[in-house]
Inverse folding.
């Protein structure tokens, strides 16, 4: 099986969208869809880890399925705005590794201001 990178996944999503005349929806419509998918994810998390059990009549979805939907819609949104998610990921990790390096207690015991 071919290894999937974010770039390859974004291309696969674009190939999928390009087969339809409608193409990409507007950013506002995409934001509404992303919000809907995040809501569905929240519902599943609540069913599995919260205090609200699923009704017997509700479809059995999984947290993984809903996370997959969020990822798919995120890629659609990124593609439509010409955003390279690999580039964004690298920048975000750099930011978190700098800003939040000592935000939480570290397993190695290091604290802010100490040398590695």
């Amino acid at each position: 099986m071919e290894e999937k990178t974010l770039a390859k996944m974004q291309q696969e999503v674009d190939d999928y969208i390009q087969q339809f005349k409608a193409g990409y929806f507007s950013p506002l419509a995409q934001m509404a869809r992303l919000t809907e998918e995040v809501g569905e994810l929240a519902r599943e998390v609540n069913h599995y880890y919260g205090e609200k059990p699923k009704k017997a009549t509700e479809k059995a979805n999984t947290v993984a399925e809903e996370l997959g939907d969020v990822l798919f819609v995120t890629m659609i949104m990124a593609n439509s705005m010409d955003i390279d998610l690999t580039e964004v990921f690298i920048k975000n990790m750099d930011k978190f590794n700098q800003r939040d390096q000592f935000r939480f207690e570290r397993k190695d015991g290091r604290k802010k201001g100490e040398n590695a």
In short: DSSP finds four helices and no strands in the chain.
